[in-house]
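User: Teach me something about this protein's shape.
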Amino acid sequence: MNLDDFTDLIERPDAGVRRDAEERRARFAVPPDALGRLDELGEWLAAAQSSARVKPIEQPRVVLFAGDHGVAGLDVSVRPAGSASRLVRAVLDGESPLAVLARRLDVPVRVVDMSLDCDPAELPEEITRHRVRRGSGRIDIEDAMTADEAEQALRAGMAVADEEADAGTDLVVLGDLSVGGTTAAATLIAALCGVDASVVTGRGGEPIDDLAWMRKCAAVRDALRRARPVLGDQAELLAAVGGPDLAAATGFLLQCAVRHTPVVLDGVVSAACALVAQRVAFRAPDWWLAGHTSGEPAQAKAYDRMAFEPLLDHGVKVGEGVGALLALPLVRSAAALAAELPAREPESTPDETESAAPEPTEAGADIT
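Assistant: First, the predicted structure itself:
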């Protein structure tokens, strides 16, 4: 598998259509810039859809890649190692914050098991059919997976992107369900941005205490030593310090860009995958939006590197796609406004006004 092929396969959204959308927006009855970021979003959607008149977002979908990370065994998370299947079960049972919001917003959710540390028989086959392995390696001392497993995971993510595009999905909210995933994500971002572990190590969705943070920081530091020698090959980097779920999300993002499917990114894990994908194909980020700010320093570092401005900053730290899903109504609103706002009535010129005036009548004429 040659990831360099994506450089030629991925095009930028249509700049000509975006200019047409800007000109169309200038004719709206609502003054230019009165809608703030919504105008920018509408123009971005126009370019992504190749239509100056934006089409409504009718078939959005939440896609969550799930996996357990061996590094969680170092107690770097509030959640116990190997417990990501509980997060999946909460989504399937409709009890997680993401599931509640998705139900209210009428957005279907797809969970893809890439490396959960549980018996696959515990979950429906449509969730487990892409699984690469059971759990990933402890990235501070060993590879997360083999090179063959990394390729399998990348291809699985690409296949999921193709399935969504073929099903008519017109926008994806991308998230993750993982335990230990933020440690792997912080390592990838530190490696690609050339910064130390302490700069990117955060406290996770359920904040860890100081001792756990120090353990997490040490794990990122040790994993970084293993990441730096393979920085030139993104597949090798994902195999060394990523994991099947992160590799699948990276392949998914790249193939969504190929298929012209817009994606809203969630937390630090999707930000790390986006940064890896950017290294593969520099045009790919033009197809993605940063949904929100999670407060994780690694996410902020990745977004700064990609020049992303998050849509929301509500202090949401729970992960699992929640922050990005909260941004979906904003994107939908931008699409609706761009599609349905009326144009201004053209202003009449003095000549037009005179020509339209009624002719005077003769004095004493009978007007009936």
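Now, about its shape. Residues 12-53+340-356 form a domain with the 5,6-Dimethylbenzimidazole Phosphoribosyltransferase; Chain: A; domain 1 fold (CATH 1.10.1610). DSSP finds 16 helices and five strands in the chain. If you'd like, I can walk through any region in more detail.
User: That's plenty for now, thanks!
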